Every structure is written in structure tokens, then in C-alpha cells.
């Protein structure tokens, strides 16, 4: 990665990681010519139930994905923080470490719909652009659309002129899968092989996760 290249980041619980994470981000990153996206596993957020896989297991699955997809690398800073982890702090650290580089923060549409509730959400736009991929069953909420109308660029054909502050919504192929559904499938002993890379499915089976 050259010093001035764009920095992609993609946060999530990844419990477990699946093709709904990987494929839309891969597609949108390609459209923006972003060569590297850092996976930022977070601690289990308060509004989610306890993870069924522990941090080491979630990390092991992310490492398998990074080995198979060279565009992804791992950034464990949010897992390593002793206190509750805020995206604002992560972005401030990244900007300090990579001055002059644009940051593209990848999220799914369901996350965009909750963005107004994130800690100091307006300040996040001082540090990054958001790149949003569509997700089945999660249309853009009208209230969020009107709140962020001045920031949203649908189906962008080129990178934004501003260094930060836009929400780029891409029409990537939608992948109808969630970690919740995968955990359910495993409890019901249904196949998960089509929903994630084979190495991740093999790890889940070997570790007997989510059963
Ligand atoms: P859970 O079912 O446990 O809530 P999840 O499948 O939503 O998990 P997360 O790790 O919470 O996965 O999501 C991380 C990020 O990936 C979020 O920004 C989310 O919107 C996005 N994402 C997850 N699944 C998809 C999908 N199928 N399509 C597009 N974006 C997705």
C-alpha cells in the first residue's frame, strides 16, 4: 500500500464472518479502487447478545479470510481496548497514524439506519466517508435519508471531491445472510457451507462452534 492510498475499514462483530460481509465490501472497494480494507472486530456491543464465539475464535476466522482474500487485513485495536470501544476514537487514532490518507468506513444498510444513534455520530463525518452496501430486508430508512440527504451520493461513479463527510451508497449484489441466521442453522444442524469460505466453515465444525 502506498502512503497516500485510501484506507478502507470495516467493523463488525463477525460472529461468524460470512459472504454477506465479504462480497459486498469486495465489490464496493473495487469500484472505489481501494486496495486494502482492514477488518476491525469489535467487542460485543451492548445491544447484542453475548457472542457465541470468543474473541480468539472470531479472530481465528478473520485470519482465515485474510489469508484467502489479500485485500483484507486485520486491525485488532477495538478488541484490545479495555473500555467500551467507540468508532470516533478508532477514527481519531487512524487519522493520527495515517495523516493525509482518506478513510472509507464500510457499513451495511442496517448499520446506516442506526448511524444517528452512534456516539457523536456527526463528528464521525470529520474523519471519513461512509461506504454503504445494500442488504436484503433493510431499505434505507426515510428518516435517515432525510437527515443525511446532503451527504448521500447514490451509486457514485467516481470518488467524492470532499476529503470526508459523504455517504456513498453502492448497488452491490445483495447477499441474504446474517451471522444470526448462521448461528441458528448450526443449532438446527443445517448446512452453512454456501454462506462463508470453506476454511471458515471447517473451523466452525472443528471447534464445534454455535451448537
Ligand atoms: P448479527 O446477525 O449477529 O447481527 P451480522 O450478520 O449483521 O450479525 P455484523 O458483524 O454485526 O454481522 O455486521 C458487520 C457489518 O456488516 C455491519 O455494518 C453490517 O451492516 C454489515 N453486514 C452484515 N451482513 C451483511 C449483508 N448480508 N449484506 C450487507 N452488509 C452486511
Tell me about this structure:
This protein is an alpha/beta fold and 211 residues long. It has one domain: HUPs (Rossmann fold), CATH 3.40.50.620. The chain is built from nine helices and seven strands. The chain has a seven-stranded parallel sheet, sandwiched between helices. Strand 2, helix 2 and strand 3 form a beta-alpha-beta unit. Helix 2 packs antiparallel against helix 9. The longest helix has 14 residues. It starts with 6 loop residues before the first strand and ends with a helix. The relative contact order is 0.20. The mean pLDDT is 93. Bound molecules: adenosine-5'-triphosphate (ATP). Adenosine-5'-triphosphate binds next to helix 1, strand 4, helix 5 and helix 8. Its EC number is 2.7.7.18. Belongs to the NadD family. This is Probable nicotinate-nucleotide adenylyltransferase. It comes from Thalassotalea mangrovi. It is an enzyme of class 2 (transferase).
- Which CATH class is shown? Alpha Beta
- Topology-level CATH name: Rossmann fold
Instruction: Tell me the number of helical segments per DSSP (H or I, 4 or more residues long).
Output: 9
Contiguous runs where pLDDT drops below 50 for at least 5 residues: none
Q: Please count the beta strands (DSSP E, at least 2 residues each).
A: 7
End-to-end distance, in Å? 40 Å
Q: Name the ligand types.
A: adenosine-5'-triphosphate
Specify the CATH architecture: 3-Layer(aba) Sandwich
Amino acid at each position: 500500500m502506498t502512503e497516500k492510498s485510501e484506507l478502507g475499514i470495516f467493523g463488525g462483530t463477525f460472529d461468524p464472518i460470512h459472504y454477506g460481509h465479504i462480497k459486498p465490501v469486495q465489490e464496493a472497494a473495487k469500484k472505489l479502487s481501494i486496495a486494502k480494507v482492514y477488518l476491525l472486530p469489535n467487542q460485543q456491543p451492548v445491544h447484542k447478545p453475548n457472542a457465541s464465539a470468543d474473541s480468539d475464535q472470531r479472530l481465528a476466522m478473520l485470519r482465515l479470510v485474510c489469508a484467502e482474500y489479500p485485500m483484507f487485513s486485520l486491525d485488532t485495536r477495538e478488541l484490545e481496548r479495555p473500555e467500551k470501544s467507540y468508532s470516533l476514537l478508532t477514527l481519531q487514532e487512524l487519522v493520527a497514524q495515517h495523516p493525509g490518507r482518506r478513510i472509507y468506513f464500510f457499513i451495511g444498510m442496517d448499520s446506516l439506519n442506526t448511524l444517528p444513534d452512534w456516539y457523536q455520530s456527526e463528528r464521525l463525518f470529520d474523519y471519513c466517508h461512509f461506504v454503504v452496501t445494500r442488504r436484503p430486508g433493510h431499505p434505507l430508512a426515510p428518516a435517515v435519508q432525510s437527515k443525511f440527504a446532503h451527504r448521500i451520493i447514490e451509486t457514485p461513479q467516481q470518488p467524492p471531491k470532499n476529503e470526508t463527510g459523504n455517504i456513498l451508497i453502492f448497488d452491490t449484489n445483495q447477499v441474504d445472510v446474517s451471522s444470526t441466521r448462521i448461528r441458528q442453522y448450526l443449532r438446527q444442524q443445517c448446512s452453512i457451507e454456501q454462506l462463508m469460505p470453506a476454511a471458515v466453515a471447517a473451523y466452525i465444525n472443528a471447534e464445534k462452534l454455535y451448537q
